[in-house]
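Cardiolipin synthase structure dump, as promised
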Amino acid sequence: MTEFLTLGNAAIAIAIGALSLIASYRALLTSRTPQGSVAWILLILLVPIIGVLLYFVFGLADYKSFERDRKKSDEEMFDGAIGAETTHPSPRLSPFARISNLAVTEGNAMSLLLDGHETYSALSDAIAQAQSHIFVQYYTIKDDHVGRSLRDALIERAQAGVKVWVLHDELPLFGLPKAFKKKMSDAGIHLARPQGPKRLLGPFQFNYRNHRKLVIVDNTVAFTGGLNVSKTYLGESAIGAWRDTFARFEGPIVQQLGLHFSSDWVWACGEDLSEYCAEVPSKAGDTNAVALAPSPAEDVAAGNLYFIAAAHAAQSRLWIATPYFAPDRDVLTALRFAALRGVDVKVLVPGRADHYLTYYAAMAYFDDLRSAGGEIWVYDPAFMHQKVILIDDDLSSIGSINLDIRSGLLNFEIAVVMEGKAAAADVEEMLAADLEKARRVDFDLEDRPMLVGMAARISRLFAPIL
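structure tokens r here:
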């Protein structure tokens, strides 16, 4: 009996060891970042049973097939969609165009929407005027009076014969109530959730999330930026009215944004909506622009390259507003080098936390930028959620891309990069007003209270997954 038990224990140990090696090898092959691979392998080897179980539930997925198939799907969507390319080459936007693999468009108009009140009012007006179709895409839609107002506006248009598609990257059990969604589908609104890699838990996907925010009406007007759909942007929050920015676009850039929505929709549902953005919208202004949409399915880390290109383009000024500051090493190096070149590098971050891990992790990066001559500014009035870049006096960008590793490598994101002094002047005025309400960080991490410094250093260890 004892010999049987010994053999049984040995067989179990061998099986656990084999599964640990298999899981470690899979983590090495498929993790998006080296830090992710190391984290999984350490967990699997140090706590084999728990580590293997957690990996097969949360970590194991067919990432390679997803990246290959999603990339092919996106390429087919944009094949031949040249758009209104500039008649004169745009050297300033050329790097961003190459990253996005799309042509620069000319003849665009941009209007800033500086808070939740302006944004939701402009969205309501545009939706009310829809005659053909509406594309809506959000990372978060809350079942509050703001979410219900959007729902009701879309239902009214759907009942009037307008075709409406809504993409919402909600997590199961944490998303909208069934009754909320049923009311929309009963009105003829098409609802879907973006699809990630196939995995054991199916839709429980913590990486490869779709963080894009888009509203497009009749292929004539488009909106994008940092706002989700929630009352927090109207001041109904324990940390104040979230400071965020959306932008309204007209002109040929609307087609590119529509195709990005269509690429997400066809992957989620198999339905190609590109016919609704087949025509290039008429010119509406004098701003050149390109829609840059980072994806974890790409060969290049477009989210990281977006910030690196901005740092290299800057000659005198680089202002960045971001709610989360946990940059990849390559991005941080580019920002530091820009500061060492004499560029006025300012990074504006929130002084209030929505997630304490990201809040403290950011502090651990402040000294890296400050030591090279860059500046960190902390916005105190409320939580700041905008994702905005200003480069010199002619380039600017608004979108959903945070200055962190998750946006750089793990999420689907969107931003419009613009060349035009009028647009840049508007962004400068907005950011200058925000900086007037902010304070510059003039001390090192070691000068903070010991517990704060400890929290920052520990939180930074989790930066690759924040």
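Residues 82-87 have pLDDT under 50 and may be disordered.
lmk if u need the other ones
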